[in-house]
Every structure is written in C-alpha cells, then in structure tokens.
Design a protein that fits this description.
355 residues, mainly alpha, Dna Ligase, domain 1, two-stranded antiparallel sheet
C-alpha cells in the first residue's frame, strides 16, 4: 500500500472532530447566552417601580409570554418561552395578578410565577358593620367578580380579609361567614354557665347590641352584664341601636332618634318588646362576643353616656337618674343656649333606660 488509503480516514476523522468542536462551541455559546438572558436584568418599568400583570387562569405559555411582553417586563416572548421550557417552569406557572419589579430578570419573574407570589388585596369589615354595609363593600370591590350574595345579619366576622383579583364575591362571603362560625364555636364552648342565652345565634344577637351600644372596648363587658342582668329578670333591654335598626335596616340613622320611633311597634324595638330582637342588628367582633358569653358578675341594670365616650353604670334607679341628670347637663352645655327643653329628645329618651 502507498499510504493514501489511510490518509482519507484520518481526514474524515479530523473533519468530524472539527465539527464536534465547532458544535460544542456553538452549544456552549448558546448556553452562555441563554444563561446571560436568564439572569440579566430586564426592562425598566414604564412608570413607578413595578408593573402589574394579570395572567388569566388556564392561559398557555404562549399567552403568558405575550402578556409579559406586552407589559414590557421581558425582553422577548420567544426567549421567555425557551427559557421557561429549558428550566422546567413552563407547566408550573400559576395564574393571577403579579407585581413585577422594574428590571427584574427572567429568572426572578419565573421564580415569582412558579411560587404564585400574587398580589393580595384587602377588604376590611369594621366591627359593628351591618350586612347591608358588608354587601356594599363586596359589590364595590373592583378586584372581585360575580354577583354579591345575600349575607345574614350577624353571620360575618369583622376583620381584614386577603382577596385576590378574579376571586368571586360568593367565595369571599363564604370565607367571612366561615370565620364567624369558627370564632363563635370557640367562644360558645367556653361560655359561662347559667346564662340567659340559649344558642350561639342568641349570643350573636346580644353581642351585636353590645357592639352598637359602645365603641369603648373597656365598657363592653359591663354593658353586656347589664343586658344579661335584664334578661335574667325579664326587664326590657331598652337598647337604642335596636330602634335604629328597625328604622333603617342596618344603615346609619344620621340624626337623633325621634320620640315616635322610640314608640314604634317594630320587631326590633326593645323599648316595646321584651327579650332579644328576632335577628342580630350588626356583625359583632370578637370582644363583644366574648363579653356576652363571659360577662362580669355585677348587679348593674342601667347605663347612660358619661360625656367622655364611655358610660356611667348604676345598680339602682336613683343612682341612674343622677347619671342621666349629669348627661343632660353635658348635652345642654354642648348644645348651647339655643337648645329648648322640647328639643332635648336624646336626653329624655336616655332616661328611658331605667325601665
């Protein structure tokens, strides 16, 4: 042999080796480029320090990439798709509303989307809010969807709830009522023995009256004790908030109670009817529920405003009438000389608590 036959295979092998080296280099270069694109900082936010992006439930990777590209938080939709596939993130992205920081890398964005780190909005139900007011809160929320369900008076626990964009109003209302059921069951299980309250529903009714009678948390146990003591002896509750509820159905009255309203024969008027009203008149908080189920031991049957935001309590009618006289004088001083005795409806009906 002259050696030429062995040169050809060597030439082929050299060509293959060269191609492999070249391909390896290209792959390495592409990998390096992909890694750089994956970890490098992304576009700046068009306004502020972050951009809001909403990813629809059920959206595919192409749609997600399109949304992110339209929002200008990623440099390229195809590049995002490729990186999501390579990193195994493509099928782990969660829908929802996201706040993407300015200059976030694709790595940061994918990490946020995989974790479901969505924006949490808040709806706060104040203590003593009526069900009408709670339904209004749900209806006016621009992040919730669907119809607003009916909410039974006293069925919602007042607190702050996290909600997400696209969550249904019915689902949020259900969470609110489930929270009340849980708290009420806890307090009911620890209730004081021999209370004139025969069910959790009655506890909520009385707690709603206590809630509306005083905004001063320190006074709630004593207010609850007064009403418990009255229920024990069959004495009318004479609770102004029940009168107001019979007039407005759970909305603010916006003025003083009229004498005609104090005498009106509505189911909620506890100046007219003995015992508890037919339903709660508001949605009471934990403190009011606790107060009626574990009231202090007192012999007090009366209370009236004391002019400081609290109440003056009394065990006897004589003592109560002195407290009422003091309150009337405070009211007159606040109103000034223009107040005529005939106008002093609020002072006169406060004396009615002695009944």
């Amino acid at each position: 042999m002259n050696g030429r036959g062995s040169e050809a295979p060597r030439g082929v092998l050299a060509g293959v080796a060269s191609a492999v080296v070249t391909l390896t280099f290209i792959v390495a270069l592409a990998a390096a480029g992909g890694l750089f694109a994956y970890i490098s900082r992304g576009p700046a936010a068009q306004s502020g320090e972050a951009t809001t992006v909403v990813l629809r439930k059920g959206a595919g990777l192409a749609e997600i990439a399109g949304e992110l590209s339209t929002a200008r938080v990623i440099p390229s939709a195809p590049l995002f798709i490729a990186l999501a596939e390579v990193t195994g993130s493509a099928h782990r992205i969660k829908s929802g509303e996201y706040l993407i920081p300015s200059r976030a890398s694709v790595s940061d964005i994918l990490r946020k989307l995989r974790a479901g780190d969505i924006v949490r909005h808040k709806i706060t139900v104040p203590e003593g809010a009526s069900s009408k007011q709670i339904r209004d809160l749900l209806t006016k929320s621009d992040v919730l969807v669907g119809d607003t369900p009916e909410v039974a008076e006293g069925s919602v626990l007042p607190e702050t709830y996290d909600v997400t964009r696209g969550e249904s109003r019915s689902a949020v209302a259900l969470r609110m009522t489930a929270a009340m059921d849980k708290v009420l069951a806890q307090y009911w299980a620890k209730r004081k023995a021999d209370l004139p309250i025969h069910s959790p529903e009655e506890a909520v009714i009385l707690a709603s009256i206590v809630e509306k009678e005083t905004a001063k948390e320190a006074d709630r146990p004593r207010v609850a004790a007064v009403y418990i003591n009255r229920l024990r002896i069959g004495m009318k509750l004479d609770a102004d908030p029940t009168v107001i509820y019979g007039v407005t159905g759970g909305l603010p009255l916006g003025r003083g109670i009229r004498a005609s309203e104090l005498a009106a024969d509505t189911p909620y008027n506890t100046y007219v009817h003995a015992g508890l009203p037919p339903t709660a008149i508001a949605n009471p908080g934990r403190a009011s529920i606790a107060a009626v189920l574990d009231p202090p031991q007192t012999n007090e049957l009366y209370f009236v405003a004391d002019g400081t935001g609290g109440a003056a309590f009394a065990a006897t009618l004589a003592e109560h009438e002195k407290n009422v006289a003091r309150w009337r004088e405070i009211e007159r001083q606040k109103a000034g000389p223009s107040l005529r005795p005939s106008q002093d409806v609020s002072a006169r009906h406060l004396a009615g608590k002695k009944r």
